[in-house]
Structure formats: C-alpha cells, structure tokens
C-alpha cells in the first residue's frame, strides 16, 4: 500500500470511528486502532486516537458529566487507572499480531455474552466492578480498547441507553487521563503521532457530530443493536486475515 492510499484509508477509518463514538459513546477505538494499525502500526494508532479523541470529545463531557451516575463510573475508573500501565507495557513488548488476535477473541466473547440475553441483577458489587475496570484498563493501555468489558457490564444491567452512553463518556474521560500520562511517560506521543492526529482529526470530528445527531432519535433497542454491531465489526476488523488487502 502506498503512503497516499494508506492515509486515505486512515481518514475514512477516522470518519467511521468518530461517527461510532458520537452515537454510542464507545467503539471509536474498536474500529480505529485495528484498521489504522494495519497501515501505521499499533504504537502509532493507539496514541493518535488518544490525542484526537481527547481533544474532540471535550464538548460532549459537560453534558455527560451531569447525566452520568458517578457511583457507577468511579469504581470502574479506579480499576482502569490501576492497570493502564500494564496495558501500555503489553503494547510496547507484546507481538502486535498476538495483540490483534487477543482483541478479536475478547470482542467475540463479549458479543456472545450480550446476544445470549445475559443480564445481571443491576447491583454493582465492588469487587466485580473493580475487576471489570481493571480488565478495561489493560485493554485501554494496550490499544485504547477499554470499551467492550464496560459496555457488556452496563448493558447487561438493562440500564437505559442514555445513561449507559453518559456513563461511558465519563468513564473514558478518566481512563484517558491515565492512558495519556502513561503514553507521555513512555515517549509514545511523538512528532509522527502529532502529524497524523492533525490530518485525521477533522474526519473524526465530522463523524462525532454526525453520530451525536443520530443518537438523539434512537430508541434503547436501536442503541443496543448498534452496540452489538460495533463489537462485531471490531472483532472482524481485528482479524489479521485481511492484512493482505492492505498490502501488509
């Protein structure tokens, strides 16, 4: 794949990822990181998304912070903050191919759990909540993919989509602080990351705006179906089987 075609692929991916994030409150990384990693590598893709998403979701946070339930968000965020460094270590030292297979398997497992109709009582016990947060932190540090376990946990409680979405924005804001600090400490916010962020940022912003507009008319059932589709797409896009199509 030539650089120009790689960049066009990344711009299109950023647009789709932004729309996904704007609609559901999650899923941007599930699409962005595997597909951009296929042409630029995960050590560039993950920090680039962190920079873009942090800058562009700030306007959404004011409303989300008012709507989210902090007693649900805080334990998950604490668990995630504790394990983000472990995820960053995996990103730096683990084979990228092994990481991508791992993300694919995890996404499919989360999807199977949700589609099966699994629900929990809605009562969030602290040890379980911290455990989900810690798993999310590892995934967030490794590839900005902390969404699947958190989404499965909250959707499994049967909560309204508006609350799940607001909680996700609150959770990701706190988890991103931890990931950003770890990336900076490890020298991963490079000049190349800055340049790619500047190029892909406008497409991601357009997608965010479009996704946010689409959410306003969505029912709880529609939201849930879209969430399932996002996780399925993430699993498929993580498969290294398609790298030949991208010249990798």
Automatic annotation (TrEMBL):
Keyword Transmembrane helix: yes
Keyword Nucleotide-binding (UniProt): no
Keywords recorded for this protein, A-Z: Cell membrane, Membrane, Transmembrane, Transmembrane helix, Transport
Subcellular location: Cell membrane
InterPro entries, A to Z: TM_pro_TauE-like (IPR002781), TSUP (IPR052017)
Membrane topology, from the record: Multi-pass membrane protein
Transmembrane regions: 48-69, 76-94, 100-118, 130-156, 168-186, 193-211, 226-246
Protein family (similarity comment): Belongs to the 4-toluene sulfonate uptake permease (TSUP) (TC 2.A.102) family.
PANTHER family in the record: MEMBRANE TRANSPORTER PROTEIN, TRANSMEMBRANE PROTEIN YFCA
This protein's name: Probable membrane transporter protein
């Amino acid at each position: 794949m030539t650089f120009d075609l790689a960049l066009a692929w990344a711009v299109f991916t950023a647009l789709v990822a932004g729309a996904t994030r704007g609609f559901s409150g999650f899923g941007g990384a599930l699409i962005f990181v595997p597909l951009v990693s296929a042409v630029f590598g995960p050590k560039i893709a993950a920090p680039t998304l962190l920079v873009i998403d942090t800058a562009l979701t700030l306007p959404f946070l004011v409303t989300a912070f008012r709507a989210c339930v902090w007693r649900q968000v805080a334990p998950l965020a604490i668990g995630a903050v504790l394990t983000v460094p472990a995820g960053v270590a995996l990103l730096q030292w683990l084979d990228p191919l092994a990481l991508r297979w791992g993300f694919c398997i995890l996404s499919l497992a989360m999807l199977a759990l949700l589609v099966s109709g699994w629900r929990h009582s809605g009562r969030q016990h602290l040890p379980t909540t911290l455990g989900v947060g810690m798993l999310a932190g590892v995934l967030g540090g490794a590839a900005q993919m902390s969404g699947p376990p958190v989404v499965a946990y909250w959707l499994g409680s049967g909560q309204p989509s508006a609350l799940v979405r607001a909680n996700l924005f609150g959770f990701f804001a706190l988890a991103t602080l931890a990931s950003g600090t770890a990336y900076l400490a490890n020298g991963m916010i490079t000049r190349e990351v800055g340049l790619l962020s500047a190029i892909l940022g406008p497409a991601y912003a357009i997608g965010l705006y479009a996704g946010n507009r689409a959410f306003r008319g969505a029912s709880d059932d529609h939201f849930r179906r879209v969430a399932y589709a996002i996780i399925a797409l993430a699993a498929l896009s993580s498969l290294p089987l398609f790298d030949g199509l991208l010249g990798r």
